[in-house]
């Protein structure tokens, strides 16, 4: 690819805990997985760099606890990073490490440039507000003050993710898991963001519902050309959606490449184990 | 023997601390200033926030008016007046123009207030964002970042569900174009009275330990969407059955005998004054 990445991440680190003399020197391999047995610090994301290109779906796969969600939350500014840089390819932000912006500026990026679908719908939706309201929330945050316009946009988006018209004013807490994820997707799309983060969108859903949601994501990529990072621990999901794939283990990237290559010809022993156990 | 011998109930230190919070509130219009809410001889939730403001402000020559939902004679208003009077000996009044300190629950008097008056409003719930965000540290951050999506979202929900803004009272306002504030449970009818008010308006929440303010001549704008403009309660074509006033906030009552809906001034002292003046005019006319 010759294009400039739309999102460029460099040396991102995130830890829970302050570290100690035993683990502070990050070069040494003195951790138990991602965890310091002396002070209990968790090194959830360790020196992660990645590029997301316009219109592509980048898959991130890895076992439970490998740091996928933490990475997404860092990128979406839900949590502060320990160190690292991220650059977004928009005229106003060229050359700016977005992690260093004020929280107001970060909020503006979230409202205009990013969409997020959380692993757990509770984090992405207000369960006791109407589905229409949940989508309007993002439009309001981006500055819209016209009820008619926002209601129409919300209904169109909810229609696109197959929420029946008569249930649009219902609260998502009454909905099934699959429906909740679809409302989250509609919400994430409401401001036509160039970048979409999807964290385990299909985990815990029935197989038929899963297929439904995956089709929807494919369709969004095809029709809207949105760039996406799709996190999953399910290789089947990654195989179906992702153009390129990153494999994470204990907070680090251990392998990356075109999805087909990674899955057909894994290099790292861990990936080999992962791929062959699936077959 | 009276256990408390301080003027205005509190010792000077306590009053000073409340005044300090008040000054900060005046300096940052609409911003909720935390204060060490004190134990009062009335229960929290019964106007202790307003009462603490009143007691910290009142001087020997002040004239006090206390109203509860428009009424000067309600049990609540009377017991607050009693407490202040017993500990200060100040004069109390029902007449809005006569008072220089007015403590009120749920209403702003109909007669426009002047620069020589202070209005103290009792506040049960000072945080306009609480219905969307339960955590205090989160709402504090929202205020600091001017993030009021939540307040707008609540109005949006009401419109989507009921076809109109359904806030019966406590409709949120932007103060000085910066902080979104709960105006206390006054009817929407009273919101415009806060805008560019000549009188200083202080709001006190005892249980929630917050003081905030609208200084004189401050812009106060009710939140409203482009296509759903802010509107006050309408009493179009209605008037008070007692004094005949229109264009004021009316209570809707059911006449016990006839079963008819009738209207009556909510602001009882205003009603009384109208009655007195028409009576006087009537007497004067009959002599003319
Ligand atoms: N708030 C937190 N405090 C302490 N440790 C945390 C916190 N959040 C996550 N962690 C730890 O960080 C590591 C990475 O967790 P993360 O949720 O990012 O993994 P994941 O790859 O998304 O896993 P899963 O597939 O189960 O969703 C784990 O060891 C987790 O226990
Ligand atoms: Mg996760
Ligand atoms: Zn350590």
Oligomer description: heterodimer
How many E-type strands of chain B? 12
User: Count of DSSP helices of chain B?
Assistant: 7
Low-confidence stretches of chain A: none
Q: Secondary-structure element sequence of chain A?
A: EEEHEHEHHHHEHEHEEHH
Biggest beta-sheet profile of chain A: 6 strands, mixed
The CATH topology name of the largest domain in chain A reads: Rossmann fold
The tally of strands of chain A reads 9
Taking strands numbered 1, 2, ... along the chain, how are they ordered across the largest sheet of chain B? 1-9-8-5-4-2-3
Q: Output the helix-strand order of chain B.
A: HEHEHEEEHHEEHEEEEEH
Q: Could you say which structural class the secondary elements and strand pairing of chain B correspond to? A: alpha/beta
Helix content of chain A: 25-40%
By CATH, the superfamily of the largest domain in chain A comes out as P-loop containing nucleotide triphosphate hydrolases
What's the rounded overall pLDDT mean of chain B? 92
Largest interface: chains, residues each: A-B, 20 and 17 residues
Alpha carbon gap, first and last residue of chain A: 31 Å
**Overall 3D geometry of chain A?**
globular
Q: Identify the CATH class of the largest domain in chain A.
A: Alpha Beta
The CATH topology annotation of the largest domain in chain B reads as Rossmann fold
Distance between the termini of chain B: 57 Å
Radius of gyration of chain A: 19 Å
